[in-house]
């Protein structure tokens, strides 16, 4: 547009994003709250189609602009102000928008430890300082670990690993609430590049998060520039820590089609294993100390576990079919 007068809709500025029809934050301005906005929703808010030339983004938020409706087509991500989208080749191209809060990195500047470090310059704390100029580097050997103490139990759903050139070809992500008993929640075999791994969709309660580096990809050790952990604060039940997700009635992993319900459970727990799993499945329940308290072989796609004899508390359910493993947190009342 050619307007020189700035008119801001929602002048209180409560929305983390304000878009403008002209460069240098001029023209028609509209403030948008966190959410997803299709073309129709933007127009209803006062934003014309293909008419955004600059934007202001509050700290702690990420904005994704899409060239097509319904969050399709080419896109541009912004986490800070941009006075002219001409410089990004995205001027007057926006048709839909996503506005989201950037999740807090729970591992930032928390106590970190490692089995070895190449030197004091490459100690474990260098992987949790949010500084891409520092890194942790292990000794030149396989089977090394780095872990972080989050300070409290969290429902962890994402671990982001920024590797240096000396990356792990094979590794596991493990959770613990006591720094003694560890549960593997994700494993990666056959990594072929030092590309960043953003492991999402994790489920479990952890105070301690470990990356167990099994096999090296190079002749050097293992080296992580950043170990980031994301999730939400845990709730409590009868003095024990449980994850918010575990407390929901019915936990489903959409990617694996695993269903575990009801959760919390009183007498019986129904397990429906993924449809693509074949053969016998071994189900194990571990208590908060990591001790096995129940084991059963599942021969059908859906079976029921009798948990009436278990004391109230939080348990770890592990399912293994010989080639894959799934882990869920279960509350028994």
Question: Would you write up a description of this structure?
Answer:
With 333 residues, the protein is mostly beta strands. The chain has 3 domains: 95 residues, Crystallins (Gamma-B Crystallin, domain 1), CATH 2.60.20.10; 122 residues, Galactose-binding domain-like (Jelly Rolls, Sandwich); 96 residues, Immunoglobulin-like (Sandwich), CATH 2.60.40. Helices cover 2% and strands 49% of the residues. It is built from 1 helix and 26 strands. The strands form 6 sheets. Strands 9, 10, 11, 12, 13, 14, 15 and 16 form an 8-stranded antiparallel β-sheet that branches. The longest helix has 7 residues. The protein is globular and about 65 Å long.
CATH architectural label of the largest domain: Sandwich
Q: Strand-residue fraction?
A: over 45%
Helicity level, as a percent range? under 10%
Alpha carbon gyration radius: 24 Å
